[in-house]
Amino acid sequence: MSELRGVTLAEIAVRVGAEPGEYAAGVVTRVAAPETADASAAVFAMEHEALQRALASGAGCILASRKLRPNAAASDARVVWVAEARYAFAQLAHQLAGEPEEASIHATAVIGEGVSLGAGVVVGPGVVVGAGCVVGRQCRLEARAVLYPGVVLGDRVVVQAGAVLGSTGFGYARNPQTGEYLLFPQQGRLVIEDDVEIGANTTIDRGALGETRIGRGTKIDNLVHIGHNCVLGRNVVIAAQTGISGSSVVEDGAVLGGQVGVGEHATVGAGVILGGGAGVLSGKKMRGPGEVFWGRPARPLKEYLRDLARLKHR
Amino acid sequence: MSELRGVTLAEIAVRVGAEPGEYAAGVVTRVAAPETADASAAVFAMEHEALQRALASGAGCILASRKLRPNAAASDARVVWVAEARYAFAQLAHQLAGEPEEASIHATAVIGEGVSLGAGVVVGPGVVVGAGCVVGRQCRLEARAVLYPGVVLGDRVVVQAGAVLGSTGFGYARNPQTGEYLLFPQQGRLVIEDDVEIGANTTIDRGALGETRIGRGTKIDNLVHIGHNCVLGRNVVIAAQTGISGSSVVEDGAVLGGQVGVGEHATVGAGVILGGGAGVLSGKKMRGPGEVFWGRPARPLKEYLRDLARLKHR
Amino acid sequence: MSELRGVTLAEIAVRVGAEPGEYAAGVVTRVAAPETADASAAVFAMEHEALQRALASGAGCILASRKLRPNAAASDARVVWVAEARYAFAQLAHQLAGEPEEASIHATAVIGEGVSLGAGVVVGPGVVVGAGCVVGRQCRLEARAVLYPGVVLGDRVVVQAGAVLGSTGFGYARNPQTGEYLLFPQQGRLVIEDDVEIGANTTIDRGALGETRIGRGTKIDNLVHIGHNCVLGRNVVIAAQTGISGSSVVEDGAVLGGQVGVGEHATVGAGVILGGGAGVLSGKKMRGPGEVFWGRPARPLKEYLRDLARLKHR
Questions:
Q1: What ipTM did this prediction achieve?
Q2: Structural domain span for residue A128
């Protein structure tokens, strides 16, 4: 099987946008780290030292950053020079992985009434898909993932083990006389667009009256919490254990580090970067593509570093 | 069915404690946001702008804060003026929802020996209820919730998907010679009182020698951790990703924001409010009903703001 | 059965390294807190007050810290004086618990192809063990734990309910043209060594190209996240909701409090103690056995306290 999926270095060069050239013969069937690479494996190198390790390894193909070329000691027919070596390596890995697993629904999965499953969907053991859910093509629901009723997934969505989608939001109305809390209606829905990937044991609440929405291509790590009515844009990245409170907006291309906290009704603007552990107060709007914010409360990195320095050197 | 549950505006007015009056005819069968409201739906408004949106919508009933009445442009027979519009809206939603789901135990649930299940209990797919658990009336255990053996739930407790109740506490004794750790006995129990609601993938450990207890009416969000031997009072609110270390006490009516951390053997006093991300050191006692604490270590809001200002304007 | 496992005080004294002496007759079959102790129960005391409570209780055996002896009012034949009373108490509890549960695989567990299960393994309800996993002797996989394919566990590993081991790491390559993210290959493995204990709903990712490894005797609390390629040493302790980003190292005997955050490619040195909520920046190396670090960014406790004081008393 691996032979069928094997690719020559000349084919790789075309695929990753490298120059045509005199490449080593042989066929690559897998990606690897230099320590475990043999002639069937491709490795990658972004820095000079990594390139030295790659050249010293038995790898059959080395995807190396073009910027390293001028300083490379000698030519090696295994090297394919590319603009973005790590990205090219990931591309190659996807190509070698070939077709996705065949569609399958594990016998222990529980599929509710009126569920629509697209072509090529893989449903793992112990998964629960509530009534009326719509699951797009080639989605992968891994072991014990739970979709509450009515959740909508686009195509190629990956939900890792134990993640819970469409849970009841945390909204209550307080009885001013007794101090008791009454659940505010949580009858909205959750929509996950195409190519979203969701980590293990992450939780995303459905909307209260409206909807919660996760935009196309957004990637979410493990143990993340996203509250009801949040709207996340496209290609957002959210690292582990970050929490976003209800009704907040995260715009396209924002990057949130681990353990970030975002209050209610806040906005993280397009392309904004929140450092690990940053905290955004309720109602705040953080703006500026490429701008890095840090600390609690989150402030521009420069300001954060100045505050730290002040604390030290008075 | 919805016809049967429909209520007139005059009935709503009585129910929510509004004045009797000349209300619009028609029957309300559901609650909604203004954007999706038609004549069958009730909406609510707490502020002037929301009221304008509600009046412009097709909603059949508008639960509006009484304080907005003097400035309302004209009378509209759809408006029911109430002291607490959001609370009234939640009340109405519960009334319209009618009877809870019928009792049921999903075929894939695993119920241990000697378990007692009260009337009207709903047990979802993949739920595990350990031996000897006691589950009160009308509890709802959602998909894949786990109760370790011996956990006791009162009535109307809701456990969302993936939550784990009664897990082994994190207490170890260290061998001073080898540096190895030996589990301290974790043989206590976990008691959850009536009307507690617990979020998805939250974990609550059982007591070590004594018990862990969650008081009546307390509401806990997703991915919260509560350690062994903690005692939480009544009507406590705990937002997502907050963690409470072992043997701490949270008294009645306290409100903990998201990502709060509470050390061991600490006390969060009755009615205390901890802002998102606040940290309470082990052994500390935070006191003062209605007092707001913020930061790490947590301090009164005023002090926290002064500290922040000092850092900036020297 | 408890009779068979009962031990006399003289036997206990030998076991925990106490002096031989004139101990009370009778047999102990369980450990307990003073409030619930009768003649069949052992309790422990580390401080004077606890000793008073223990002496006033009906406990049949009192494991007390030797350092309390000079001030003890009178001799009591129930007291066994030991160097480490809490450790001795934990030892006794383990001894009384006797043999581990018999090996068993719950009918609802899903065991993949080519899985190797050691002698005495207990697999709980709803557990999923992926293809090719190796599970050592006397491991306990509790309800709904998930092992992705190829995960390797040593002997006596405990995995609590809902924990996910071997999930896909959070590594992506960004397409600089489109801003879209492509999963970096996550094909490595996860190795958990002997005597590791893992809390409920914790997640540990497998390696990207290499491996993630958790060293022998390490204890991990609930809702912890450990990223791909992390290497944890022996007898490390990690409290709840702590997160360790990819490719970081935590050396032998380090202690991480709750909600700690460790960036990528960081090192927490042998024996280092990180206070609750501490944050270690990416690439940082924290060194010094027994050294306590606190705050974000983490700094030596003394420095952290000085910074706090400066903020207050200017």
A1: 0.95
A2: 104-305
